[in-house]
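Quick illustration, no need to memorize.
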Amino acid sequence: MSRVARSPVLSERAALQPTDVSFLAGGGELGAMMRALDWSDSPLGPPNHWSQALKTTVGMLLAAQAQIVLFWGPDFVALYNDAYAPGIGANHPRALGRPAIENWGELWDDLEPLLAGVRRTRTTFAAKDRPFYVERHGYGETSYWDVSYSAVPDDDGSVGGVLCIVSETTERVLGETQLRASEARYRELNATLEQRVAERTAERHLLATIVETTDGQIQALDLDYRWLAINASCAAAYERIYGKRPKVGDSLHEFLADRPEHLAAATAVWSRALGGEAFTTIEEFGDPSFDRRVYEMKFEALRAPDGTRIGAFLTGMDVTDRLEEQVRLAQAEEALRQAQKMEAMGQLTGGVAHDFNNLLTPIVGLLDMFQRRGIGGEREHRLIAGAAQAAERAKTLVQRLLAFARRQPLQAVPVDISRLVGDMGDLISSTTGPRIEVTVDAPEGLPEAMADPNQIEMAILNLSVNARDAMPDGGKLRISAKARTVERAHRSGPTPGTYVCISVADTGIGMDEETLAHAVEPFFSTKGVGQGTGLGLSMVHGLASQLGGALTIRSAVGAGTTVELWLPVSHARPGAIDTAPQPKLQPLPAGTALLVDDEPLVRMSTAEMLSELGYTVVEAGSAEDALQRVREGLRPNLLVTDHLMPGMSGTDLGRVLRNQYPELQILIVSGYSNNEGITPDLSRLTKPFRSDELAASLAKLAQLAQ
């Protein structure tokens, strides 16, 4: 019997207990614990106040060697002896002096009716091997007990409690159960011996059939490298890679005698297994004139019934296709990581370009104003012209960033690619120079592509310049266009569909694999410092993606480069490519212009332009501010508003005011092409812009209003 732990806290409290607890003396460790226990929280109160019947019963059970627990009072407060304590495990000592439901909760639905029945009827309940579900060691289990529950009268003759004399029989019950199960299995084995022999024989036949018909390669060699066994799949694998099949009794040495290198490789792995080593390996075997395959092989020693090693056997599997698929999967994962990286860079670049356009707008506007007004002398004119040229270069750089980020403003229309490519021949020839032989092949009758003609021309020109730079000693440049249909998707190509494919091919120095892997990344360039921005291919790639197409590149060192721009075929009516210069239109000043932009510098430069064009300008820093001005009585003839602003967008502002004043002219200004929510009836102007570009946009608005 395990000993009950003595609590120092209980010992300290012992000095505070009444001294009339002699009935607890000689009660072992539980008696000492009861004397030391603070009974103020127990429903029973201190022991010296207990009824004489309770004291007598407790004194009796403490002195007993049997497992006894007393449940006293209507709350069934538990009092027990040393013999009983180990049977409740971790519930001791917290169960002492506490209502039974607190520590026997998991079996209370079973225990409480028994205790209540004895208390109510005064009839003893007894049972042998009675099962109880308990949680006494931190987990639930079914235990078995011989039990006798008897009513104990109190001093007034009523039932004071229930005395439970118990004896745990769990170990015996489980042992007998296991014994009966073993006896039953033994009887079953004897009764079915003949049947099992027949089944075992059938099992061996079935196993032999499985071994012979499985796709896995199974073979065994003796210590002299002769085949003891080989299944059909393994023999077929040998025939595939060597053109002949081994059979039982053949020698491995003789089988590969005409291929010494292959024999050496085979005996190297078999010698390890025949030496008793168990291992798994992946090796490539086969004559290249037939086939080379990769096998995963598990070798184990083959032993006689007495344990003597007589050979070795292997189970193998052709994993060539699996490994190739793993390589393809790794390539696809790398492509996905690259795409995610490019998408993240695109989002970052698009946001920076948008903010940069806001910064450029007042710079371009003010420099344009200085030039138009002829401010300063000759030196100042040169400086202003240089600054304006730098601002235009910055504007072009931002356009390329937006193209890479797929946020450039596009006017996608059906385009006759045959005509567009054919008309660019002379321009490309003059750009590439006399040492480059330019060939243009754009047959008539190609389907129209859905694209922005101006951006496509810029893309072809960029690709041609790249090709020129890749042929420093001259070469050939071929620009062609063909109708192509993609039936199956490829990880680096367009999705299935019909396309017009523009190809720019050169005979230049080409790119190695590492350079090709980074070719479309922004700012990546193989040119010297100051000789390029590294945005040419990334811009074309972004353009293709934004149009729903794709960009593919094939290149090898010394073999030139071919870049293909895939544009989806348009199913709408083709539109004309208007390359003729537009006449300079003058706006028609018409009263008040409401200018809305959350950037003060942009607002300042735009207001100056509108004032020069004859408008009375009222400025607002937000759409909400603009609506407040209108509510206060402002009746503008023209609304010029930024599109993306905190709160209400400029487009939503235009819709609200258009509903109130249908004659209101509206011009949406945007840093990049976030077209969501912009209806076709709202004219647009892209930042940054000069005064003449603003004037042209306003003139078009005036013409539409007439």
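The domain at 22-173 is CATH 3.30.450.20 (Beta-Lactamase).
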